[in-house]
Write a structure and sequence with these properties.
The chain is built from 10 helices and 16 strands. Helices cover 31% and strands 25% of the residues. The longest helix is centred in the C-terminal third of the chain and has 21 residues. The strands form 4 sheets. It has an 8-stranded mixed beta sheet, with helices on both faces. The chain has a 4-stranded antiparallel beta sheet with strand order 10-12-8-13, with helices on one face. It is elongated.
């Protein structure tokens, strides 16, 4: 069997062969590609879909996205979408196992290699036995990590070219045991904004600060003052996080530099709060810069909206998980994450739900250089996708 052949297990088997899934996933892991550069990844996805006999459209979402379509053999019915992200991160892998990244400075540190494999496995499984009424679109989306491949696919006409009544997504979740899942009724992931703030002043000798304007002092004050937007201006019952993650300034011991650059993120769930915090951010920057006689240049970019499930669709996903062999517990009360997800752009256009599947209690955190997707999760993820399709699109074409 070719490395990228679809498995030829008995059609009655509810999951795709675990060894084949592991082989696919580890191959994706060895060859990570970042936003809009997932050309090898897309080629491998296309090979597997082609060998499964699934028609697909490639070159989407900036060039590397793919959508495959499967018509059920039980007649007409609604159409739904299943989405997996395919990109990696600019992280240097510190694992030393055999399938570690072969691309310097890049790795699958968020499990998108596993998400891609699970959706491919489900596509193969369903192609062998399409016992449902309606149509499924398998969405392989590039550039989830900060670059908004989901937004690009929506703007390119994803839902016009591939009409669907609902769309669903999955993410692995470190710390949650394999065999456990989490489903949120509404809020799942926070909105995500990024900022780059540059302060321009007059450099001077470190022994004569009165002859210049101290951009370092102003930058340090801003790191502290901006936190007041969260601790003193955000209502206690609303959640928001502001993090300054970069501070670039200076080259010499005895020079106060002319320029300081700060970068970071701001995240929350409530859209009016998000808009107010953005304005107050600008107010604080202008105030501190004015106090120190500096010129401020702020590039503030709203990136992703918050990810909200549609309650009735979340319940359908939870019902499927509750009845799935291998799922021991479905959490309905976990707090949403302050991390962000560009699947939000799809959920803004169509109802649906985004769930978490446990990656193991001992799993390294997402975006950690020691992270690895847990291959034990692969068959379970395939089984979830297959059961979700067959339960939502029953033989009467009723999208329950």
């Amino acid at each position: 069997m070719n490395r990228f052949d679809c498995p030829t297990t008995d059609a009655a088997t509810p999951t795709t062969d675990a060894a084949t899934l592991r082989q696919w996933r580890q191959d994706f892991h060895r060859h990570p590609e970042t936003a809009f550069e997932e050309h090898r990844t897309a080629q491998r996805i296309a090979e597997i879909l082609d060998q499964a006999g699934l028609p697909f459209v490639s070159g989407l979402g900036g060039g590397t996205g793919i959508v495959a379509t499967l018509q059920g053999r039980l007649g007409d019915g609604p159409s739904i979408g299943l989405r997996a992200d395919i990109d990696a991160l600019d992280v240097t892998e510190l694992n030393d196992f055999g399938h570690a990244s072969r691309v310097p400075g890049k790795m699958h540190a968020c499990g998108h290699d596993g998400h891609t494999t699970m959706l491919l496995g489900a596509a193969c499984q369903l192609a062998r036995r399409p016992d449902f009424a309606g149509r499924v679109h398998f969405i392989f989306q590039p550039a989830e990590e900060s670059e908004g491949g989901g937004r690009v696919m929506v703007e390119e006409g994803l839902f016009e070219r591939f009409p669907m009544e609902a769309v669903y997504g999955v993410h692995n979740w470190p710390g949650l045991p394999v065999g456990e899942a989490a489903v949120h009724d509404t809020a799942v992931m926070a909105a995500f904004d990024v900022f780059t703030l540059t302060l321009h002043g007059n450099g001077c000798h470190a022994a004569m600060p009165h002859l210049g304007s101290d951009s370092i002092l102003a930058g340090c004050q801003l790191v502290n003052q901006l936190q007041g937007l969260i601790s003193r201006e955000t209502p206690a019952h609303q959640t928001a996080v502001l993090s300054v993650t970069q501070f670039h300034a200076g080259d010499a011991f005895n020079v106060i530099p002319e320029r300081v650059e700060l970068r970071g993120t701001l995240r929350c769930f409530d859209e009016p709060l998000r808009q107010r915090l953005q304005q107050r951010f600008r107010d604080v920057v202008d105030s501190v810069a004015g106090l120190h006689g500096l010129r401020a240049e702020l590039d503030y970019q709203p990136r992703y909206p918050a990810t909200f499930n549609t309650p009735e669709h979340a319940q359908r996903c939870a019902d499927v998980l509750d009845g799935l062999p291998g799922i021991a517990r479905v959490h309905r009360d976990l707090a949403p994450s302050m991390a962000s997800e560009d699947f939000a752009f799809m959920l803004n256009e169509r109802p649906g739900a985004y769930i978490w599947l446990g990656n193991g209690e001992r799993s390294a955190a997402l975006h950690n250089p020691h992270y690895d997707f847990n291959d034990d999760l692969l068959p379970l993820g395939v089984a979830y996708w297959v059961e979700l399709v067959t339960s939502l699109l029953d033989r009467h074409g009723a999208h329950r």
